[in-house]
Design a protein that fits this description.
Elements lengths: L2 H34 L8 H30 L7 H9 L3 H33 L4 H37 L9 H22 L23 H20 L5 H27 L1 H10 L1 H13 L89
Helix pairs in contact: 1-2, 1-7, 1-8, 1-9, 2-7, 2-8, 2-9, 2-10, 4-5, 4-6, 7-10, 8-9, 9-10
């Protein structure tokens, strides 16, 4: 089989993997959205799944092509399973394997220590100076910490290698880089979970408690996790399916990849007809709301910040002066803010005057009182000079 045919199969199955994983992500996000909207007359669960799948389908195509292209660049002959790389590490000579078995856990722990140190440095810098100066300080100090940790790892590496060599006589697993690296990753994961659980949203309380900031709503990591799942599907499907794919399977995979794009085209108009769908995605779908914003920006032809599709609300995508964000001019016969009608001119009311002899001036009934209130200034944030 030609190399071009092999590349085509791998790209198609990468797209299939991204599409299948995207469908699973849409099921999860729609369930979370539907559960959060219970009691407020939410759309149907199936409708939410289709809406989320519709906005995520183009993203799946992009991720599938990117992951498939990167895999072809690094593995042009065939797709290699992760187990092959692990087996290659374990098949190295004993001396090389023991060095790798010492270097991998040291690198994992050093990377975690760098994250902790950088987080504390950033918290201290942001609490004292202006943002631009704090950013420069954080960048310089984090690079210094990274260099210092790298030097420390290289200095400790010979000692760690000797200790592993001594212990390998009783525990041969100590020379397995996969085992030592897995143990280090498990230790780091437990430390991260402990710090996030014990710390507060301001990052106070101790060294590891800095990870308590991960509980803040604005640091929602679900979009990153969902996107990583889609990329993982695009990576694993060619490994599992491309080697024994027939022409029929390839055609089925291609159709399954294209089909969700038809849902995208349907939802582009359906969200205009039922704005509840777009609002539900915006408020409850972690990755879906990001994809929805990207689709609206991509379909905004007059660049006025609003799209005529996906519930964007633009009533004239050829005129940047007409959009939901435009200022309505009353009485000119033009619906600038896309509300559905032109705002009529206000009715002129006669001035109300006091009875003769009163000292008060005439009052205009159109006068209003605007009250601006501030709920709280959050002194516990620790930013821009707050202690």
């Amino acid at each position: 089989m030609s190399l071009v045919s092999e590349w085509t199969k791998r790209l198609v199955f990468a797209l299939l993997g991204a599409t299948v994983t995207t469908f699973i992500v849409a099921l999860v996000e729609a369930h979370a959205t539907w559960s959060a909207l219970l009691g407020s007359h939410p759309p149907g669960y199936l409708a939410l799944v289709l809406a989320d799948l519709g906005v995520l389908a183009p993203l799946a195509v992009v991720v599938g092509l990117l992951v498939g292209g990167v895999a072809l660049f690094f593995e042009p002959d065939r797709a290699h399973a992760p187990q092959e790389y692990l087996a290659r590490l374990r098949a190295e000579p004993v001396l090389t394997r023991s060095r790798t078995a010492a270097l991998v856990p040291l690198g994992v722990v050093a990377a975690f220590a760098w994250c902790v140190a950088t987080a504390h440095l950033a918290r201290a810098a942001l609490a004292e100076g202006a943002p631009i100066h704090s950013g420069i300080d954080i960048a310089a100090s984090s690079m210094a910490v990274l260099v210092g940790l790298g030097v420390l790892v290289l200095a400790v590496l010979p000692t760690a290698r000797r200790l592993i060599a001594r212990g390998a006589a009783r525990r041969p697993k100590l020379t397995d880089p996969v085992a030592t690296g897995g143990a280090a990753c498990a230790l780091v994961a437990m430390a991260l979970i402990y710090g996030a659980a014990r710390g507060d949203t301001g990052g106070g309380g101790g060294t590891l408690q800095i990870f308590g900031v991960l509980k803040r709503g604005e640091l929602d990591l679900r979009p990153v996790v969902n996107l990583a799942a889609v990329a993982m599907g695009a990576y694993l499907f060619p490994i599992a399916l491309a080697a024994r794919a027939s022409a029929v399977r390839l055609l089925v995979a291609l159709v399954a990849t294209i089909a969700p794009l038809a849902v995208t085209m349907r939802e582009a108009q359906a969200m205009n007809d039922d704005p509840r769908m777009a609002r539900a995605i915006e408020h409850g779908a972690p990755l879906g709301k990001v994809a929805l914003a990207v689709l609206r920006r991509a379909t905004d032809r007059d660049k006025d910040g609003a799209s005529p599709y996906f519930g964007g609300g633009d009533c004239d995508d050829h005129d940047p002066r007409r959009s939901p964000y435009a200022i309505e001019i009353p009485g000119n016969g033009i619906d600038e803010d896309c509300s559905g009608a032109d705002l009529p001119l206000p009715v002129e009311w006669p001035l109300i005057t006091r009875p003769p002899g009163a000292n008060s001036p005439a009052l205009d009934p159109e006068m209003n009182l605007i009250l601006v209130t501030i709920d709280t200034l959050r002194t516990d944030v620790g930013f821009m000079g707050y202690d």
